[in-house]
## 1
Amino acid sequence: MTLPGATTAVELDAVSKSFGATKAVSDVSFSVASGTVHALLGENGAGKSTTMKLLSGLIMPDKGTLRIDGAQVRLASPRDAHRAGIQTAFQELTLVRDLSVLDNMLLPRSPRSLFGTLKRGRVAAEVQQHFESLGLDIDLAAEVGHLDLAMRQKIEIARALYRRPRILLLDEPTSALAGNDVEWLGRIVADSKAAGITVLFISHRMPEVRDFCDTMTILRNGRHISTGRVADYSDGEVVELIIGRSLDQTFPARTATTSLKPTAPVLETRALTAGKKLRDVDIDLRPGEILGIAGLQGMGQLDLFSACFGALATRSGDIRVDGKIVHLSSPADALHPSLRIGLLPEDRKTEGLFLKLDGTTNASLPTIGAFTRGGLIDGEAERQAAEAVFSVIDVSPVASYTEAEAFSGGNQQKIAIAKWLVAESRILLLFDPTRGIDVGTKHQIYELMRAFADAGGAVLFHSTEIPELVHLSDRVVVLYEGRVAARLDLEEIDELAIMNAALGSVSASEASRWSA
């Protein structure tokens, strides 16, 4: 729809795109008014990212028409899209990890002098000024691969804005952001709108859609379902339109086993210090429990999860499993049959999966030795183990022989979880498991977590979404500046208590009292 009196910046008219037998988008039509912020919603695989790629010039439609500012366009390459005033910040970051921040900002074309040499000094000053205007403090000489995921995402957004777009495409920009970073993006979007820039915004988080967006389009199974003003839809209506059914209950009910009996911890840390942030942290994770770890970005939670998986060396303190001190020098130690610890990492695509390998191979890799006979892999046993888990967690059977990169983000995340179920892990370390996942798949992961805990497994769980911590956790530990700021039992858990502690509002004496 186009708002009354507004011109149209982007229009799709009966657009279709197929990849083999798969129809990614089918006869999709909608328009976006100039100078507005428009959300594109749908489950993983609904056609949102395909639509963004069509507008970015990465792929071309099989049929249908694209119009920019009322004129029909043929976007055969990203350069065509740039000429049409379109810039994109992708969720799957396009930054080159081995190059500096400045070099990435200048790709793919750098301004040159009359004699072909790069005007590096002048351009560096311009980029620095651009960052400052966005409220970013970034070392231009820093190698991108050494920066955390949230900072890389902000650089991706900053680069798109540096190219002065008339139309800005944001593909799940908040999936790597939390807390103050989301507020930062909100200001960027508001400023872009005030400057007359049209913004298309993919998100799975309804609070952000309501805060940032004027209008929205919902896609399902590659087809257009609805377009309208955000204010005209309730959250429940949006969920039903996205998944084609209602979710009676977003979060699974806690069962009787969730009211934990005083059992011995399966995983403990004692005065654990690791990485750049984590300092003197004590946690106790019990069988049958989901223990939430809360904290704003960079408060030590990633160091905690990495250390408990053997991916980060401890500087002092102990990690204990079943009451015994363990020395985790690598993830291979965490995978030992006596420990069976599995980690779902922050970035599934670079840390959790081999995208060029099929689902079976990804799911069996941590425990490939269990499928090896006389130095040879028993492919049939490997496939059967993977398919058994895929059926439990609702991954398509074709995942067994299809490369992981061919699947939507939600299915990729479930494949990344599947390998720890194939490994029969008894401790799951889940770091923001629903990042960039649609509402239907989120519900499936919630149920999987609860079922795993109810069966006697133990889950250490971090989320950037506070409601998830409130409704899924049996207890919550809040980190602030790398230390424990609060410990909340089930009856004490609410969003206010978590945020107060996450912002450093709880005194050290209170934290000590709770840890007693």
Note: The longest helix spans residues 439-454.
## 2
Amino acid sequence: MRKHIVLISLVMFFQSCSDKKQSEPSGPESKNIFYYNEKDGISSLDPAESNVLPHIWICNQLYNGLVQLDDSLNVLPCIAKSWEIQEDGTKYIFHLRNDVYFHDNECFPNGKGRKVRAYDFEFSFNRLLITPNSTAASLLAYIDKSERTNYRPFQSMNDSTFVIYLKQPYSVFLNILTMKYFSVIPYEAIDYYKKTFRTHAVGTGPFMLKNWEEGNKMILVKNPHYFEKDAQGNSLPYLDAVAISFIRDKETAFIEFLNGKLDMLSGADAMNINEVLDKSGTLNKTYASKCYLQKANYLKTDYIGLLVDEKVNKNSPLLKKAFRKALNYAIDRERLVKYFRNGVGMPAVAGIIPKGFKSFDTSQVKGFHYHPEKVKELLKEAGYPDGKGLPEITFHITEDYKEQASFLQSQWKEFNIPIKISIEQPSVFRQATLLFQYEMFKKSWLADYIDEENFFSLFYSKNFSPIGFNYTHFKNVDFDLLYEKTLRTTDEKEKIKLYQEMDRILIDEAPIVPLYYDEVVRLVSHKIKGLSMNPINVLSLKHVQKN
């Protein structure tokens, strides 16, 4: 009942907003509102900290960067209308639009948002290097702070020209700049709000922050000065507002959706897929009158990480490659996807790279499949014939993966591999994996930018957690050399071969247990049209219309 009261209060809120002065960005007169739920919550609106999907989604409504991705994952202009790459790939010159304004906000004189200038990007990018809770600095490892640039890798040449210098060619750099980390923010907002900027978003995006009651609701309203237009020259966005609730229980959120209080549910973990989808992954006919199903390839791999650091995980059977491979061959991934995800996703029959990338090729990268005899051979090779002498290993998960983990546990038990499941709170789990406190843990990785390098960076030895995202502490000299070579390689065919070779090394060394390549799954109200999908599942609402 409380959730219904919360959502009713949103409607009352907008009714009161529409009575306010026209000069205020108060709310829509037509109350054309898109409602969605974010079960994992939102902790910050600062784009410098946008390292998880809920945060990325909200930042995509509030901010813009130099470039952006379309739904086919092509890099397109955004605030930068054009660019050139010079000096053998080490100098990027961006030419900015002159019609982009920051949101009206009290941090500006008279509360009026000013025009974006090149210096704003210089300020925003430099800020990424010193923001304590940001992981963006690791993506800027190749910027050139030397005499060549007067120790200034980011330079505003004039109001409309912004230059970035790199110390060596970095083939994925333009893709990296599409991430929300690299959004432009005004220095006035940081000076004015200081540490509370996380709750006072000031960007250039299609929507502006109106109200945020943390853990309860968030209201965004249309930016009347947004610079992008549709193909017919109409101003974007079409919606008047976005209302976000934070209902943690998926059953409650599903009831709200069926009752028309939400316009979308996103993700297989946000709904009871056993109820909503049949075993082939199609929408149950019972719900066809209420909504439609959206599905698409997702550049996301779910896997089990294995800590292979001899200094930390001493005397563990996980340090033996044969045992790690036995864990892999013991799993029937087809059953996992069919019965525990109702056909959502694809069994991870290759390596870490999911379907949708150009290097994905099961004829070139042959991963693990269910093979009982192979498991027995490998256990014997590892020194644990029929599982004898194996200590109990703790498998750490969050509540969302309880059923899947129980299935995996039963699979390993068939071979006398003793696995104990420990369910952790998400915040505890994130911190513990970052600090390499778990020897076995369930993780997933979603492409932040559109290049396979994004996934392989998880296994580069210089990215050991907690500084980077190499949670397994995998280290392999050949892999590292190949990884570094790909960063310098611009020929696409050559890069594909290098990526496939790297994936084969990961399969042979087995620091992870790949489980499945995910799919984007959404339930959408029939009232909604124009809600696009993309393989990185970034929510874009600027073209959405509601009947």
Note: The radius of gyration is 24 Å.
## 3
Amino acid sequence: MKSRFHVISSMIVVAIALNLAGCAASQARKDARNPQKAAVERFVKIRAPWSGTLAANGHFYYIDLKDGVQQLHKRTGQPGEGVALTDFADGASGYTVSDDGKWIVITASTGGDEQLDLYLMDTKTETIKPLFFDRETVSGSVVWRRDSKAFAYRANKDVKSDFNIYIYDLADGSNTKVWDKPGYWYPIDFSADGRKLLAGKYVSASESYAWEIMLPDNGARPLMQRPDKFAFFPVGYDNNDSFLYAITDYQSDRRALQRIEVNGSYAINVLPQFKDHDIDNAVMNQKRDIMAVTVNADGYGELHLYSLPSFKPLDTPDIPRGLVRNLAFQGSTLTYSLTNTITPGVIYTWNVDQPGSKPVPMTTADTQNLDLATFSLPELIHYQSDDGMEVPAFLFLPPGYDRGEQIPFIISYHGGPEGQYRPGLSRHFLYFMSRGFGVLAPNVRGSSGYGTAYLEADNYKNRMLSVQDGVAAAKWLIDNGYSRPKMIGAYGGSYGGFMTMAVITQAPHLFGAACNVVGIVNFKTFLERTKAYRRKLREAEYGPLSDPEFLESISPIYLVDRIQTPVLIAHGKNDPRVPVYEAEQLYDEMKKRGQDAELLIFDDEGHGFRKEANRIVFYTRLADFFEKHLQ
């Protein structure tokens, strides 16, 4: 009988699901280290709203769970008090508020299939109408024109492998295609007069471009056109549209914030002091005289504020170490969220013009009465792979752990592959640590956050080098006395699912159990069956379908006979990224050989676990699985 599971469709929730880790211990150890004796359900139900926006109409909007599904909410009273504005069966995926606060465009899909539709809300009446509802088209990346009378968005209406750019006018309901070139295009920013539109083209994590579209004739010109490839993510125009700001690794191994003349003749790194770190994000206020910047410092997210155009540093609020995200401005009021590994995300507002003031919490977190202070923050460690590559990783130890004691561990491999494990709250890590398990979260080569060379070090023919790094993580745990062979579990989702299957086929003697969630096992069938708009993006990373011999050489499906561990396979039936056939063929191949495999297909899910009820069922099953096999 098939179980129903929820697959997380948004990138912010995917990051929560893909950080799962845990391992088993003896019953005595679990009892000794589980003073709260909490069930998986309580950890999964730790809740914190996210994606907050303070609008010009004075309302505070955010995403929160209603009946276990994420919906758009509006705060009407004190922090924590709010009302749900949407009631989609499968939840709201995201939203964008117009500058005047009168309109909201909401994105939602069905059953985790990520075929996002657009809905328009009048914030005065709070009525919602379907705007573009097409189950065969993905729409998104909404950018409002500064007069709030129109917005741009991307959609693959005509050619499913390409995203074109459209502008929807609220006054007459017209919907005009303004850019129809092949590729994955998306809007970024309108000029002040609405006659120019910045657009980006995404090729891969290390290659992207920007163009300026002239409206209404739709003429265009490339910005920063160079013969060499680089990542180029525009932030937006400056206050007089003569310059634009962009996060780019142009002329650097790190992603820097650069100011670029609109004609593209030169670029200046405006924050050279961060030359050893990647810039994560940058957001300007409506006047474009203040910018908030987050810096990726060894996985942590640090907030910095600047006056524009001088980039004179401004005071920042007092923020504990963690991940600062969710940057947005309303005038001089900054909205941001903060989380770390023992702190659920809280959304704050802070007035830049009142530097001595304290941040105002706009939301509260439900910790299910768990004492999260019981747990310690992770230790950032570095280990060497077989070829000498230094790999960063976060080490989590359970309460009461004695150095030198060998305990069960889970190695959690992140997705992407261009993702990065970052020390935010992971409910699953907390639960497994409460049961006496350790967790190691490595950022193997190919991860973002450590420079372009590291990001590209696993591309195409170097794919198995990242697997080498994954195996080296288990060796490090053993060599340093934290665990022993067969006491280590492998876990990962999406690309992390591939990593899980790859490490247990490359080093079967090290691992005692494995869980593959929405993972790739056959790169050829994966590329053939993934959605058309994703195929080129993934071929740029993994290798083209025109090289089937190489794709076969890196596919774990052809090494199933090496597997010595029980494997739990979980997938969403509606997954558009890694189709469910990847799970089905793995299960079939293992069962043919009489190997220990469990298969969970979730009829109402896609690429991750999204609904709270489904997550509870899945993580309960996973906890039982690891506790049974990791002793």
Note: The two ends are 28 Å apart (CA to CA).
## 4
Amino acid sequence: MKKITIYDTTLRDGAQGEGINFSLSAKIRIARCLDEFGIDYIEGGFAASNPKDMAFFDEMKTVRLKHAKLAAFGSTRRARLTAAKDPGLAAILRTGAPVATIFGKSWLLHVEKVLKTTAEENLKMIADSVRFLKKHGKEVIYDAEHFFDGYLDNPEYALRTLQAAADAGADALVPCDTNGGRLTSEVARITAEVRARFPGAALGIHTHNDSDLAAANSLAAVEAGATMVQGTINGYGERTGNANLCSIIPSLALKMGAQMACGARLGNLRSVSLLVDEIADQRPPKNRPFVGESAFAHKAGMHVDAVSKVSRSFEHVDPAAVGNERRILMSELSGASNVRLKTGEMGLVFQKNSPAVKDILQKLENMEKNGYQFESTEASFKLLVQKVLKKHVPFFDLQGFSVVVQKKDGTSKATTTATIKVSVKGQTELTAGEGDGPVDALNSALRKVLRRFYPAIDSVVLEDYHVRILNPESATQATTRVLIESSDGRERWGTVGVSENIIEASWEALVDSVEYKLFLDEHRRRSSKK
């Protein structure tokens, strides 16, 4: 079992992704999280690039990491300066980080056209920089920028750049697919040739995802001899991103038998992924491998039937191994197995040929024909089941509502007032609420009525509101589907409404959201009494 070192560059390379901007406190929080998870190296930032990165290193001097080593990133010395007088190398020393990661040029195209220096001077820049940092007691990781492109252009020169770093005392050599354009077969072949040239060196791999191959290329490099993998949480990074450690780490641990410090904490992988998303203010894609909400979601009836009998028939790893869980989706493609498993989560047990299962399926199919969608709106599905089984007791009944939007002139802001009349526990209530729009006003009015009877609804927060036009060819008469995501701080749920009238569709989804909260609380109370 090969021992693999994981090097995280979320705080540096990941922060270069479009829309990603970490505050100082956010960077520290992420660093602590990565350390707890068992990441071996945490690259904190480009030492000479901006004051915020330097402030991070200053702050980290007071933070005690349990496992990870902190690395400061920078470049080799400039062509016309000595290492001792290079401001970039001096900045690395000022960080106080025990590890210095520097990049140098491997591709003559960059040496001659970008740096505008000679091939021999570039080799001296690499060697001088590594030797200088080693002299000051740093562990030095040398990132060979554009190595694979440079190797394909001139293999002997690319290898000479690595030799310069190795001879100067670099602790690790890391070939980089900086443009992200190399095929997996190329990365595997070239990494094997580098390993043969430097049999005793610690060899790493750093890939970008421009061809959607970063994770595959990283794993191929490990198979070819690399023992360090660089990447970012969730694959954040410039352009299309870096190698995604949330895909690489479980593949190494569960499929390649690699030994890693974070392997013992693999069950925390999804929570690490979500935390970084939250801090980065990014909505996580549902279809992310391993850690995504849909990574172990099953929709087709035949698949659900198979996975309920033998989980590995449609799951390549155990969801719990990466901190995830299996989800059974409900749609027109669902079969009886989907319904039985899904209702089983509600504490309802049906036999294989139960008429109730057929009734639920029929209702589900009819509603989806009319535009409803229950894949991401499980709360509406659970309420639907209660209604089909005639077990649903409404917490309140709508007797009517009206919404008035007023705009006095072309420059004034529109105001919205909603009036609703509902019956709650035998009492009829009429009230009004104001909001930024019709849905906000209806939500305000509904809460105002229900708060006296059900104070718990104050904990419900509408997390997301999504509208989709189902038949745009009908223009303003088109059918609208509204999806609402809500949370009470303990659970998160989705509801759906459909109508040609967007306000009516919104109301339907809003009512389901509130009713599900009350249904949830009632279920919790019953469970606590058992």
Note: The chain has a mean pLDDT of 89.
